[in-house]
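Q: Hi! Curious about what Thioesterase family protein looks like structurally. Here's the sequence.
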Amino acid sequence: MYISEKQIEIRYAETDQMGVVYHANYLIWLEIGRTQLIKDLGFEYAKLEADGYLSPVIDVSIQYKAALRYGQVATVRTWIEAHSRLRTTYGYEVLHEDGTMAATATTVHTLVRKENFRPVSLSKVDPAWDAAYIKNMREMC
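A: Let's find out. The predicted structure is below.
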């Protein structure tokens, strides 16, 4: 299974009054990790949108384990946890520099036409992209 890694330098603006990363910023980091995974696999999400498709998040789950703080570097690890005709589930780990787990997460996405938000299969939109996701899942087994 391919796991993408992206480092995030934690900015002061991402912290709360307690000096720890504000919980909602993890959602942004998950997007950064997901975008990096897609790029690593040879595809571009921006092209998908330019072609008239969107991939909205339909479910998100985050488990916070250990606080991150300003000045630290977090690593977001991202992989394809599940991929079916209409849904893709991405898995994530957010790590401290020493490898300590800061958070784990999953996001579930569907693919829709931008014009009417009707679901469409990735295999019909971009067969090569769909095949890359399927191949990644098969390597996991």
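A: A fun detail: The longest strand covers residues 73-83.
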